[in-house]
Amino acid sequence: MRRRCEWGEGHALSVVYHDEEWGVPVHDDRRLFELLILEGAQAGLSWSTILNKRDNYRAAMENFDPGKVARFSHSKIERLMSDPGIVRNRLKIESTVTNGIRFLEVQSDYGSFDAYLWGFVDGSPVQNHWRRSDDIPTYTDIAQRLSRDLKRRGFKFVGPTICYAYMQAVGLVNDHLVDCFRYRQVAKLR
User: Which residue, 190, 157, 140, is CA-closest to 35?
Assistant: First the structure.
């Protein structure tokens, strides 16, 4: 039987997400935008809630094309407010538009969001060696720096805890527990 991080057990979508995505280095800007938006949407909710709504988010958010999201009109936001397939929180929905605009600005400044983001870890994932879930911090100094910089650029829903969860999701850090079957697999990825 495979050992997994505790949070990756049970719920079918969580198992697949843990086993196939979480901690794998992401270098595709559209996927980076998707996970940034989903981590912000998750604030105050369980990750399984977001995983259950992920396909609906992809449809509602134009497959997370930041250019399209950045151009969402007031009427589009109002339609999204009545979409039961996503989290219907006005601030979170409006933040997707703001973050789409800011994401495009970062792409323009750095050539890609990938280049900007991976600069926070000098282009190589941080390899942690946690033995227990309780040992994993809710944020780190790097997450605080990323959060401050994103906020300075005008991004929303990017506090240090959200930024650290984002860093874990997109592979800037390997926070699989050392006895998790994915730990060594993910450690080899760049």
Answer: 157
